[in-house]
Amino acid sequence: MKRILIPTDFTKYADEAIEVGAQIAKKHDCEIVLIHMLELPRQMNDAITGETSIPEIMLFKQKADETLKNIKNRPYLSGIHITEVVRLDSAYNGINNYSKQNSIDLIIMGSHGASGINEILIGSNTEKVVRQSETPVLVIKNKIDNFNISNIVFASDFSKETKKAFQKFLDFAKLFNSKVNLVTICTPNSFKSTSAARKIASEFVADFDMPEYTFETYNESNIEKGILNYSNEKNTDLIVFCTHGRTALNHFFTGSISEDLVNHATKPVLTFKI
């Protein structure tokens, strides 16, 4: 892991993500890219070549550049290679395109607790960034003074299509020397016996060089509640799951489960695209 992208709208929630990014960067010698998406009002965007809009646009960009430079000078970022970027684009398009074009290894976003991603990533942008990003996305829910992820839960149905994403997850877990808790959530609509689920998981992990791990099935009324409750019972530091891109999530994560987890979890959430 060499380059971390952190979108910021200059709120305290983005600052919490930057602080976590700083801890990771110092520990693993990474560069941090701070990116601010300058989403202009529609009427200004439509008249971007008009006589009165350009001075206002330049003023907004100048202010954003100044604010990023002030952030760069914060003591906790001392010694880290920081790149500042301001783009005129929507949040999702700007973040996703920059990540693809610049070999970003991890995106870190701040979140406004159970209310969802903060103003820079509201509405459909939350779903788009989390579900569609080719780059792993780490969502920070609260201020974390010591980002220590020694205990991780990875929730999955362990289907073959998740194998590539699972290897990326293992690389991340090994980077932090984390214990891995694998879990399959069984609901009334997706029930598997414990023996059947264990067989699927055992055959799945046989293809990987596994760190210390456990596997369990967990029964709950829905998948989201199952993951959250299991994570709380195991006192894990991080919740990890896979997303399925533009066609929504795979049959294990259907509907809006990814967005619900990001919004309702109190712990950090990490997603990998299948």
Give the CATH level 1 class of the largest domain.
Alpha Beta
What percentage of residues falls in helices of 4 or more residues? 25-40%
Shape: elongated
Strand order of the largest sheet: 3-2-1-4-5-10-9-6-7-8
Number of extended strands: 10
Distance between the termini: 19 Å
Write up what this structure looks like.
This is Universal stress protein. Belongs to the universal stress protein A family. The chain has helices at about 10-30, 40-45, 55-70, 90-100, 125-130, 165-175, 195-205, 225-235, 255-265; strands at about 5, 30-35, 80-85, 105-110, 135-140, 150-155, 180-185, 215-220, 240-245, 270-274. By secondary structure, the protein is of the alpha/beta class. The chain has two domains: about 5-140, HUPs (Rossmann fold), CATH 3.40.50.620; about 150-274, Rossmann fold (3-Layer(aba) Sandwich), CATH 3.40.50.620. It is elongated.
Task: Summarize the structure in short.
The chain has 274 residues and is α/β, with parallel strands linked by helices. It has nine helices and ten strands. It has two domains: 3-140, Rossmann fold (3-Layer(aba) Sandwich); 151-273, HUPs (Rossmann fold).
List the helices and strands and how they pair.
Elements: E1 3-7, H1 12-28, E2 31-37, H2 42-46, H3 53-72, E3 82-87, H4 91-101, E4 106-110, H5 124-132, E5 137-140, E6 151-155, H6 163-175, E7 179-186, H7 194-205, E8 213-219, H8 223-234, E9 238-243, H9 257-264, E10 269-273
Parallel strand pairs: 1-2, 1-4, 2-3, 4-5, 6-7, 6-9, 7-8, 9-10
Antiparallel strand pairs: 5-10
Protein name: Universal stress protein
Organism: Flavobacterium taihuense
Pfam families: Usp (PF00582)
